[in-house]
Structure formats: C-alpha cells, structure tokens
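Curious: can you check?
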Amino acid sequence: MTRPLSDPALGSAPGWPLVLYFHHVNPLVRHYTALRPDDFRRGLETVLKRVGPAVEPGTVGPGFQPPDKPSVLITFDDGYRDTLTLAAPLLAEFDVRVLLFCTTQRLDRANTTPPQERAALPPRESYLDWTEAGRLAASGHVLSAHTRTHPKLTALDRAGAEREVHGALHDVAKRTGRPVTTFAYPYGLIPAENPVAPSVLGFGTVKSAPEPWSVRPREIRRTYLPAGETDRWPALAAEWREQWYGSQ
C-alpha cells in the first residue's frame, strides 16, 4: 500500500532512526503534536518498548552512522516552557534526552519578560528563557535551531531565509558555546534553494520523504504520535519497527 507523505504511519527511512517530533506536553493545548502528560508517558513507553532505544541527541550531526537496530530520536520544536516543566520530568523517568529546536528570538523575549507576566501567558505563548534552556542542556538535552522568528522560509527571499537560519544557528552556538549541527524547518517547509549549509543536518516533518539521512541530509523526515489516538500507537510503533528493516 502506498501511503501519502502526511500519514504518520510512514516512518523514517529503513535502517535509520525513527524521528518523532512534539511541540507541547500540556493538558491545556490542542494540537496534533501536543500530548497530555500521562499520554506522553504512555507514548515514550510504547516507542521505547516496541521500536527501540532512544538515540543520544549529542551524537546526531553530519556523518551520523545509524545503529544496527531500530532506535528512536525524540525532538521538540519551538522551545516552549512546558518542555522544562512538564516534559523533562517524564523524559528523566525513561532516561531519555531530546533535540530541542529553539526559536531564538522568542527565548530572547522570555529573558526580558517580567516573571508575573510570563506566569500569566497561555502555554502556546510561553517560551523558555535562556537560563531555563540551559537547565535542559545541563541535563543532557541538546539545544538547536529553529529560526529566529518562526517564519515560513518558503515565503522569504534567499537572503531573508539565510538570515533566519544562520542567525538562529549563531544564537544557539553563542549561548551554548558549541557548534550547532542540526536545524528544524518551521512548518516543515523547505525552500527550493535550501539555506541550510551541508555542515548541518536539516529536519523536516511528515512533509519530507522517507530517505536515508546520507541521501537527503537536509530533508530528514520526522513523524509523530497522533494526539488523542493512544489506542493506535502500539500498531504504529510495530509498523515503524518493521519499516526499519526495509527489504532485508
């Protein structure tokens, strides 16, 4: 059966880690990649048991060699505060670290927003500040780039797209003191003239094809655990694991 690219049942390329993306772990957010805390715990348990162990995000970058058995890379987009307050304790239960793709100017703004004002923000407007992001990094999670302002890169000219991409890579490198070798495209939209340098792995969404990272290192497919469909997750996980083996 040929599946549309948008189908989350279509995993990553055979022989390469399954890459999952989330935005929120929060009971107040309704989004296809936002899970309630109990569901996130169930999702982690499902994929780690039925697909394979978690990839350490610190090992991910150009030249990455896939493991010899099915595995899972967990990623979060945007840099929401509930990644620290609600997701991180659950990740610690399972000894899992993630790639956290930050929209850097939103973290900058959180740094200068008074605490009382931040506390009143709804979850979808509440971002980590850089100190909080640093706490995640100190726990082994890897901060990475997701543009400065979260635009649709396909709507910008090449110079504008490069400013967003390279600016965010620079911002994260400056804050972490290390080179940044991964990037995630907002909305999964990848410009025809790709602004991501060959020295950086680029992560898309379900809009990207399931190709080996070595073939399309700047268009890596990610998929998701559909919110509100927990009964479907074990079958999805079994299918993702089977897809890993390809034609072997």
Helices lie at 37-50, 82-93, 104-112, 115-119, 130-138, 158-176, 233-244.
